[in-house]
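Z., the sequence and structure:
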Amino acid sequence: MSAEHTTEPDFAPVAPPTVAEPPLPRTRSLALVSLFATAIFLNAALLFSVQPLFTKMVLPLLGGSPAVWNTCLLFFQTLLLAGYLYAHVTSRLLRPKAQAILHLALLASAIFVLPIHVPESWAHPPGSALPIGWLLGLLTVSLGLPFFLLSAGAPMMQRWFAGTRHTSAHNPYFLYAASNLGSFAALLAYPLFIEPRMRISEQSVTWLEVYYVLLVVIGACAALALAYRRTAVARPVITTVADTPEPAAAAVAEVPLVADETETAFKLQRPGALRGSMKYLIEENPSVIRRFLQGRDAPITEPTIVPDRNWRLRWVLLSFAPSSLLIGTTTYLSTDIASVPFLWVIPLALYLLTFVLVFAKRPPFPRWLMLHVQLSLGLGLIVALCLGGGKGVLGPAVFHLLAFFATAMMCHRELADSRPRAEYLTEFYLWMSLGGVLGGVFNVLLAPVLYDSLVEYPFALVVAFGLRPGLGRTYGTRLDFLRDVLFPFAVGTTVWFAYRLPAPPNEWFSGGSQVFLGAMAVVVLFFWKRPFRLALGAGALYAGVQLAGNATSNVMMQDRSFFGMYRVRIISEYHVLQNGTTTHGGQSRDLARRMDMLTYYYRGGPLGDIFATVAQKPLRRVAMVGLGTGTIACYGRPEEHWTFYEIDPLVAQIARTPMYFSYLRDCAPRTNIVIGDARLSLGAAADKEFDIIVLDAFSSDAIPAHLITREAIALYMQKLRDDGVLAIHISNRYLDLRPVIIALANDARVAGALGERSPDTEERGKLYYGSRWMVLAKNASVLSELVKLDGWAALGSSPESRLWTDDYTDVWSAIKW
């Protein structure tokens, strides 16, 4: 749609009517707003509560990978775009009554695919190939229609409200805050109230019941919108500017200073234009600078912007950056802590909260404050990403969330301040949604193919820096542009050179890297007046560290798959496999110790005790859930047959490469690696086939929840011989799984034992890690010798948590508060 020619929609007048119409009485106005706000709130709550619900349904089918949530996010963003497109097109082509009838009919038809469930025909993923395509297909079949229709709810109902005689009809954007408030409330309620109290099947039924209520409320909104709509509308006068600007580069888009001065405010002018000069701004409009510094925090009573190609591009970019950052932050949290829904919803809830705040009638935070906070936290995050993982995770996680929140607030505030007139409302949301989808496509589909590390995370932050407002509305002179390139280049070169010195910053003194990078970040901070220079400066700071680090890196290999990002590093005399900040095994480079079992699996630890005291048959059959580096194979004996169940083909490739780890090649037993989710793969094994099943599967730093449920334990016991044992590795920095396993053992009526051991200083120098293991057995006598050892004790009846099943898990209660 061009700014020069529009077809006036029947449903959304934006100018005062040509014929005087009586305003709605106060009581009816209040009732109308309340009804629409309730409908939009419920619509959004259903829309966003279904996201963690359905993701939790499909999580067991794909091994609990963080990529499952990111793929689901991409699907939800895409359906949101489709819903906004449907709302936009029907608003343009259909009269109000026809649109309302169509939408209600489609909402009613969606009941036939409800309640939400995984169809039986989709219950088994087709191997490890193309998991993203399979998951997107499942989401489309199970959830596509209702999610698509709910996605259209907020913009469509705001358009309906804009066509009424309500005094706020010309500026219905405040209802968008109600939409995001519903989304935020649903996401916050899920881990705190819904997940701990309701089984998945109960959640699905309750969701359907609220859906019925929503149908009635939307019907009432449509009826009142038709009853109270304006009948006489003046066609708006569209003004244009002769000096039409050329398309602006993404990273250098300058932010408007006063959005409500004219219909063409915030236009990006050609370089050298007098009207964009600082002299003009100060002499002809002295309030502009003051209003920029203070922020435009007064209520936006009359949006006046008419979209053009520059506005549309800017809306897309301002949506792209926080969407990409959302997935980057989620990946960080999921990789270093645990791949569980309650951690996923925290960044998404903060993302939605920013919309609630910036689309309020009076935003609570002044614009200048958000810009200053985002600048400081954003550059601090760049420094943190350069330094890599430090000690602990909780503190860095909070910092990442704060930086993400500030950046999303900044971008979304610029969106809110650039909202167009009411007749362009659905188009505005459409371009916003497109930017969100592009952010998801970039992170989920393109980045894993283009990069072997999480480069998309700092890249999105750099884009956000480029979208910050500047003091001028022009590119400046050619000399300014040259400085925009040379100053960041100097920053990057300085950082690279410092890290390539014989004694790099991390060796200058304790905290030398932090001080040096902090000083360089302060230099970049002074680029704030020119967003393009600031963005390049932040990117150069990060790139300088990465390029210098790659030249002297101890990383042997680094790669990523759907299930995670892995690196094999040389640390002292060892090779170690890492996923985020978690080590999943290691091997000595010393030939004399090549066969030594290290990390959590050393012979003097709990796992060594298990193999030394139970299932002492000449030829044992062992099942390993989780491969890692293949260290445990060295507990095997000649002629024994061991089966490893591993969901990620990349992990199998790493473990089979002798250059990295040679346990599978050098150790005694015959090994077989089965690729796929362990529960599905174990189901194909014969009953009572194994003497020992070792559960050592980790997604991030925790066992995937679907591997420690009542149904999972029943499967393991079915595959164990009568004198067999199930060994479960429960070491975790953040989750205490003892009560969970105790409840499962008591429910299955099996015996159990808990063992833990911490190595001394000398042992830690040999790469021996402390670990905690629990063992379950059908017969208590099998564990009689084990419980006599130091560090071992039989399981009691408490503490015990609520029983975890495939239909119910509560990770929140397992956190080590």
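Residues 443 and 555 are 23 Å apart (CA to CA). The chain has a mean pLDDT of 79.

Let me know what you think.
H.
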